[in-house]
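Margin note: ligand = (~{Z})-2-methylbut-2-enedioic acid.
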Amino acid sequence: SKAELDARIRAAKATLGDRVVVLGHFYQRDEVVQYADFVGDSFQLANAALTVPEAEAIVFCGVHFMAETADILARPQQAVILPNLAAGCSMADMADIDSVEEAWAELSAIYGTEPDASGRVPVIPVTYMNSSAALKGFCGQNGGIVCTSSNAATVLEWAFERGQRVLFFPDQHLGRNTAKAMGVPLERMPMWNPRKALGGNSEESLLDAQVILWHGFCSVHKRFTVAQIEKARASHPGVQVIVHPECPMPVVDAADAAGSTDFIVKAIAAAPAGSTFAIGTEINLVQRLANEYPQHTIFCLDDVICPCSTMYRIHPGYLAWVLESLVGVDGGPSVVQNRIVVDEAVAAPARVALERMLSARP
Ligand code: CIZ
Ligand code: SF4
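Resulting structure:
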């Protein structure tokens, strides 16, 4: 039962004390978030993991790429645990390393590898945080960089200084929305089409490109529509519509503002009491904000509940299981279940790409 599960999780956490830290992503359900020592977005949580060097284990209630990032940044002795190994991210899965390497080879054949007169290389690979460790490592190895939805424009600026073009993974919407806001014309942002047999990209469009977009998307954020925004404006005059930049371009264009989770939280926190917000992002976060800020009216643009289905795979039952395993069952030894380990051959270049992001300045 729920009460039983609650008692088990609390008891295991109490026994483990500082040996374990539980991280909870903003998109996790409340039944899980209530046990988190830190709550945040993927980048904030990776940083939170660094503040507890004494913890033996980091239990990451989020999705696979987030646990990988934590393992890349954590101390080698620290075990990063994903309570349910089936908690992946469909967007991250859309940029598998084999397809990326094929695309890179095809583009290198077109662009060559020589820098131009001002020393800019032909292409800089940029990947959103929401990607596999392998892809982060690929970017690190090939002069590229990682970005989050908070710093995507700063990172693109960094890349434009060093490269004639950018190949942006995996989220086409974040790439398109960010580059468009920076003044890159849409016709210079072709989407990579590897299916040569079905047409592919013309060499001309690739030569003229400034940003080549990968074909990934977030199945949660792509659901938001302009019609939902129109409906919100009609029913709530004065409403402020804020959406995440993983939403399609027409939705971002129709909103009052677009920004990362951090941006959305800060906009709500700074608003005068009695403000009304329609938010285009994951429902668990929106409902938590609505509860935290009762002085405002806050609702999700999509009234058909739309949680991230893979985030939802972290059930409190799995959390109880990994914590009790760490304690040791029936007086038995402590066991680390569901450890996420990124091979150092991948972690080292991935760290390079992450460090480039941290030192990129606006
Ligand atoms: O859409 C997501 O999964 C986001 C925004 C994750 C994160 O925390 O960066
Ligand atoms: Fe991936 Fe979207 Fe879920 Fe985030 S909300 S974990 S991008 S599927």
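The mean pLDDT is 95.
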